[in-house]
Specification:
about 50% helix; alpha+beta; Jelly Rolls; four-stranded antiparallel beta sheet; globular; about 190 residues; about 20% strand; 9 helices
Length: about 190
């Protein structure tokens, strides 16, 4: 599993052998079954996850008891409730495996150790968090500027495999609509 993470890192930064060994040492391989909540709301997120395979979602439960999916992610990439992980604060979000998942995870303490030990790891971590900020800003803009159909079309253009691997109710919630609305949009596109 570590090979996929190292390939991902090497695509962005040059690591030496010692740094690669440190990554292998501190990123723990884990496997979770479909529908497993791996981080619960009401707690400080314990890990930053690298997705080797599978699909994850970040969601919270609103005042009406409805689950609101705020993020969907697939390999390759990192996933957690970033703000709370970085700041060590209690998150209102759950992290759930939508499918069976192979992941590599690291604690904040171990990530800080790697960052302090290696300038390359520090640079890589900064680039990962910058990508997360950019993604969140783009997503906020899209939710306010694009209509429901445009958001769906953009999702299937940018992440076509999500449609085959993520249940419609999570996709609809992620796109800010009800499943029935998404079903209508999908029928319209097919016709």
């Amino acid at each position: 599993m570590h090979d996929k993470l190292l390939q991902y890192i090497f695509s962005v930064h040059d690591f030496n052998e010692e740094e690669a060994e440190s990554v292998k040492q501190y990123f723990e391989p884990v496997v979770f079954s479909k529908n497993t909540v791996i981080e619960e709301a009401g707690k400080v997120p314990g890990y930053l996850y690298y997705i080797v395979s599978g699909y994850l979602r970040l969601f919270y439960v609103d005042q009406n008891g409805s689950e609101i999916t705020t993020h969907l992610n697939c390999p390759p990439g990192f996933f957690t409730s970033y703000f709370h992980f970085i700041n060590g604060t209690v998150s209102e979000d759950h992290v759930e495996c939508i499918t069976d998942c192979e992941l590599l995870r690291i604690t904040k303490e171990n990530l800080d150790h790697l960052i302090n030990k290696s300038q390359t790891m520090k640079d890589f971590s900064i680039s990962v968090f910058q990508q997360s900020i950019t993604y969140n800003e783009n997503r906020s803009r899209e939710l306010s500027v694009l209509n429901a159909e445009e958001r769906y079309l953009k999702l299937i253009k940018d992440y076509p495999k999500i449609i085959q691997n993520v249940p419609i109710q999570y996709i609809a919630s992620f796109l800010g609509m009800k499943p029935e609305s998404l079903s209508r949009i999908r029928r319209k596109i097919i016709n």
